[in-house]
Write a structure and sequence with these properties.
The chain has 14 helices and 30 strands. With about 600 residues, it is of the alpha/beta class. The strands form five sheets. An eight-stranded parallel barrel has the order 1-2-3-4-5-6-7-11, surrounded by five helices. Strands 9-8-28-29-30-27 form a six-stranded antiparallel beta sheet. It starts with a strand and ends with a helix.
Length: about 600
């Protein structure tokens, strides 16, 4: 059977448990250092707890060690890697090729920060010993299919969550504006700021809009196509998201992916257990900047969120009429008091709460800026979030039991859905039962009780019901049998692909530019050993980025605003993005259908001009 993995984010132990219980086949989590989300680091002992809980269900744990490394950090990075391996993680997600050279006894995954976008690159990474490549988010289905066909490595794709507008691992915009580096785990998210689009003569074409902010990814309706293309891991973004988000989104994708696998004989999920939500999962009710399939079906406009980088939630309708302290919606909606709503209007994005609902008549707690025609979104569903908070969703492993009583004692054998077996027994004299039928029913009921264990005993066979067994004895032996079943499950090692580095593998290019970020001696040696002759100094260590390309992107502002150069744009000449004193020239590579930002000298603001 071929396996498919649903991979969920985990900020900490608590969110990892939520992800596992909601149906994840694997979780990814950061260690104490060197992860691409500094705010989501965990002590090694916390990772040990995550591994112990996840492995009960055959759920794998992938640790993120995916920042660039300086030479003087290599010993600490190796120490961190080996601590994570000793903690029991199943794979390390890495960006820096120095980790490939540390002879680590663990499966290695090439992070999306490696900027995995081509069949040639993915093939090389497999030859270099990476068991998995994690693809750039901006790829189309055709590009993903070509990569899957070209590499023996597993292919992992993001299917839900926030999108980095620049190519992952090749963006320096945050460092240029704030000194905080995304490649070092400290991105300040300048792509979510308001920007002015300005022409070469200084005229503002668009003012104060979030021109680099793209909507969130949702490929939940494309999972079948991705499985058919060869993808084996489906990743949900969100290591900084709360437990409610993880529970809701993971449960939603678990259901969607199970439907896909049920229609494809020969495919199965990568872990075991049943997760039955006690709520109706709906990702539109968790944090979202609006759904997008990005460029899955090819590059096209309509993926940006110019008005706000914040969560707007699910669209409810439009304001049809305003009167007094309330407004009328243009359609029926299931709003309720306590819901949070926001409005997108010429006045900008405004928020409010619902105080009262009478049919389509909504009374918010504030009316400022609410005008006819404004679009209405619900960004907080009070009833749904209450259901999430109250959820007691558990994950259980189906099992069956055989209860055998005799004159000499009692034994219970348990077998789980994977065939793992355990037994417990008591040797003691038993009396004959006065009512064998009632005794059998009592034994069956006791054997099916699983308490707070991870097992759900669904089928019980009773042998020797003519021998009376006290309920307390049956319960004691059953507990021992289930404890032993868990112990035996935990003894089984998960399969890993710890692969060697083929010294004959050749990197697709003989030159590495500064954007490729070779920041230490081990990474430089790795590339040189694989045929690279020229390695430029890394932009990540440059004293100044002025004149440098600080972002490349498949996203294009021209395309988004209907001014694509390939389609007869009337907007000619140079274009710039400006935010305060910061200025970046936009370069358009129409052959590659890409946009780049080049850092320009800082502008003098009006305040600086008046105070030289």
């Amino acid at each position: 059977m071929k396996t498919v993995e649903l991979l969920a984010p985990a900020k900490d132990y608590a969110s990892a448990v939520v992800a596992v219980d909601a149906g994840a086949d694997a979780v990814y989590i950061g260690g104490a250092r060197f992860g691409a989300r500094q705010a989501a680091g965990n002590a090694t002992q916390e990772i040990v707890r995550v591994v112990e809980y996840a492995h009960r269900f055959g759920v794998r744990v992938h640790a993120t060690l995916n920042t660039l490394l300086w030479d003087d950090e290599l010993p600490d990075a190796e120490r961190q890697a080996r601590e994570l391996i000793d903690a029991g993680v199943d794979a390390l997600i890495v960006q820096d090729m120095a980790l490939r050279r540390m002879n680590l006894p663990v499966e290695l995954h090439a992070s999306t920060q490696v900027s995995n976008r081509t069949p040639q690159g993915a093939r090389f990474l497999a030859e270099a010993g990476f068991a998995r490549v994690i693809l750039e988010r901006a790829l189309s289905l055709e590009e993903i299919r070509a990569i899957c066909a070209a590499t023996p490595a597993e292919v992992e794709v993001f299917v839900h969550g926030a999108i980095c507008v620049g190519y992952s691992g090749r963006c320096f915009l945050s460092r240029a504006l704030s000194g905080r580096s995304g490649n070092r785990g400290a991105c300040s998210q300048p792509c979510r700021l308001p920007w002015d689009l300005v022409d070469g003569r200084g005229r503002k074409i668009i003012a104060g809009k979030h021109l680099l902010s793209v909507r969130d990814l949702n490929l939940s309706h494309r999972l079948g196509e991705l499985v058919d293309a060869g993808v084996t891991s489906f990743k949900i973004e969100g290591r900084l998201k709360d437990a409610g988000y993880i529970r809701n989104v993971v449960a939603y994708y678990r259901r969607a992916l199970d439907e896909v696998l049920a229609a494809r004989p020969g495919w199965c999920r990568a872990s075991v257990g049943e997760s039955i939500p006690d709520f109706t999962p709906d990702p539109a009710k968790s944090f979202t900047r609006g759904d997008s399939e990005y460029f899955f079906a090819g590059k096209r406009p309509g993926v940006a969120s110019f008005d706000t980088p914040k969560a707007v939630g699910e669209r409810i309708g439009r304001v049809a009429k305003v009167s007094g302290g309330s407004f009328l919606l243009d359609a029926e909606a299931d709003l309720a008091p306590g819901d949070g709503i926001c409005f997108i209007s010429p006045c900008g994005v405004l928020g409010s709460n619902v105080n009262a609902v009478e049919g389509r008549r909504i009374t918010p707690n504030r009316m400022e800026g609410i005008v006819p025609g404004a679009e209405v979104y619900r960004n907080y569903d009070r009833r749904f979030n209450l259901a999430l908070e109250r959820s007691r969703m558990r994950r259980v492993i189906p099992a069956r039991a055989v209860v055998t009583a005799s004159a000499g004692g009692l034994s219970i054998t348990c077998v789980d859905c994977e065939g793992v077996e355990s037994s417990a027994s008591r040797a003691l004299p038993l009396d004959r039962a006065k009512n064998p039928v009632a005794n059998a029913a009592s034994l069956r009921m006791q054997a099916m009780k699983s308490g707070d264990t991870i097992f759900a005993v669904r089928e019980v066979e009773v042998q020797g019901a003519e021998w009376f067994v006290p309920a307390s004895l049956a319960a004691e032996v059953r507990r021992e049998a289930l404890d032993e079943l868990l112990r035996r499950r935990m003894e089984r090692p998960l399969s890993h692909r710890i692969l060697p580095e083929d010294p004959a593998a050749r990197y697709p290019s003989e030159r590495l530019g500064g954007e490729e970020n070779v920041t230490n001696r081990l990474a430089a040696a790795f590339y040189r050993d694989h045929g690279v002759r020229e390695i430029e100094p890394p932009l990540e260590r440059a004293a100044s980025l002025e004149g440098c390309t600080v972002m490349r992107s498949a996203y294009c502002i021209r395309r988004e605003i209907g001014e694509c150069l390939r389609e007869g744009s009337t907007l000619r000449g140079d274009l710039y993005l400006e935010h305060g004193a910061e200025r970046f020239r936009l370069d358009f590579d129409c052959a590659a259908c890409e946009m780049a930002l080049v850092e320009c000298p800082r502008r003098r603001t009006d305040r600086q001009k008046n105070n030289p």
